[in-house]
Amino acid sequence: MRAVRFSALTAVATAAALAAVTxxxxxxxxxxxxxxxxxxxxxxxxEVSKKEFPAGHIELAIENKGSKVTEVYVLFPDDRIVTExxxxxxxxxxxxxxxxxxxxxxxxxxxxxxxxxxRQNVKxxxxxxxxxxxxxxxxxxxxxxxxxxxxxETLPLAETFAKAVKDGDIEAAKKAYAPSRIGWERTEPVxxxxxxxxxxxxxxxDGLEDxxxxxxxxxxxxxxxxxxxxxxxxxxxxxxxxxxxxDWQERVGKADITPTSMANGAKELLDEVATGKVTGEEERxxxxxxxxxxxxxxxxxxxxxxxxxxxxxxxxxxxxxxxxQFSALNTRLDKYRPNTSSYDFTSYDKVSxxxxxxxxxxxxxxxxxxxxxAAAVVAK
Length: 380
Hints:
- By secondary structure, the chain is of the alpha+beta class.
- It is built from 13 helices and nine strands.
- The chain has helices at 15-20, 134-166, 170-177, 182-186, 188-193, 198-201, 217-227, 232-251, 259-277, 289-314, 316-334, 353-370, 373-378, and strands at 36-41, 46-48, 52-54, 56-64, 70-75, 81-88, 93-100, 103-109, 118-125.
- The strands form two sheets. The protein has a five-stranded mixed β-sheet. A four-stranded mixed β-sheet has the order 2-1-4-7.
- Strand 5 (70-75) and strand 6 form a beta hairpin.
- Helix 2 runs antiparallel to helix 3 (170-177).
């Protein structure tokens, strides 16, 4: 999970209320393409080149002119995520392709990756969207079935973990902890798109918003590995974790999924690896980071494989590079488990700094071409 997330707005929040807190300004477009939206982020502004654009495929051309790392989001009015791009460094540019239906949206820049971000209300107009390749409809349907299956398979594993916590069995809970997270990590961008579930189940201590209670997997991870005790509060939190995961299970099949959100989600999973798993921040108490790492890569690869037939026709060179980099990263990960059919990985505190650097380099080598997958999927 990313360190800090947006707090949820209600679906009935008005556009005027949102505009009052954005601090964003509109500027003239630097390009002639009405589907390209220039987004200029600074430490205190989020400028967009147009407030209205045609529904369908759009491209965010993002430039960070600030001094802080930023994130840029396209959000529904109720704060669900349409698409996002994280970890945009100062002085760098990114392009993000997305698909939107006619309606109201918010573009938000998040300097320093903290708080609700600086927001700009925008509108997609028109009711016609280019006809989609039937293979992409099939890819979306298959991916929707995949994320539902991951949620369905997670629940019994999480219930085993929660039962061990409630029984006060620390060793059994430790054993059940990492397996209970695999399905979530494979499909995390879809879970995060709802806005309100992820902060309950997967928040880290350093990601808490003001007034937010520390709950979920990582709160229990801390109790097991650092505090080394299970009390009444932890047992209550175990029940809450299951309730929140059941909410996820019931809602995940209704998530807004498009070919571009699948492609962007694959890139987001690599961002998760780069900012949490490679650094050792995600599983700072249990050191089970490599289990999450592998699950993130598997989730990204699933999206890629479903989109690959269309992407290959549009950009064969990109597909060749992605095949190469996925293989290289998986081969490197396999060095840290004795059996490639299991998730029994080396504890991350036993991985040297040099080895961590090698893993980071492999992630970056994959992330760069993966950022181009969404554009390849919609290319004519």
